[in-house]
Amino acid sequence: MNTQVKRLLQVASLALVSFAAVGPASAGSATGLWIDHTGRGGIEISNCGANLCGRLVWLKDEKNSKACGTQIIGNVKPVAGGKWDGGWIYDPDQGAKYSVEITPMGDKLKVMGYQGSKFLSETMIWRRASGELKRCSA
Q1: How many whole angstroms separate alpha carbon 95 and alpha carbon 85?
Q2: Which is it for strands 96-105 and 108-115: parallel, antiparallel or unpaired?
Q3: 0.85 exceeded by the pTM?
Q4: Separation CA 80–CA 43 (nearest Å)
């Protein structure tokens, strides 16, 4: 399971190629543009009603451009302590969804993918994108 979650987050990282203006989000917010833990993907997290969702908007490797626009995160709900939980994160390589907990930490975002129990989880640290990022086209 940990390998599958890791692959999912790596694919989510395959999204950074060019530079388009990104509006600033508050430092303690989970919304905004994030570079995944590998530095190869950009995921834009936004409000979807009362919940959060996220899509790949930047890929470092143009060979993976088919993944551009893929929804990676969905239905993540606010919980106590500024965390978000109860939603899902998608692994395109495995064609599988896992549960996800998201915790904003200033200019970093803790993304924990898990299956069933948080005891069996994989935690990644994403960083907020700075400046401009050229978005891939879906």
Answers
A1: 21
A2: antiparallel
A3: no
A4: 24
Q: What pLDDT was estimated at residue 92? A: 67
**Phi and psi, residue 62, nearest 5°:** -60, -20
Q: Give the pLDDT score at 58.
A: 93
Q: Which domains does the chain carry?
A: 2-134 (2.40.128)
What is the full DSSP assignment across the chain?
-HHHHHHHHHHHT----EEE------TT-S-EEEE-TTSSEEEEEEEETTEEEEEEEEESSGGGGGGTT-EEEEEEEE-GGG-EEEEEEEETTTTEEEEEEEEEETTEEEEEEEESEEEEEEEEEEEE--S-EEPPP-
The total number of residues written for the chain in this structure: 138
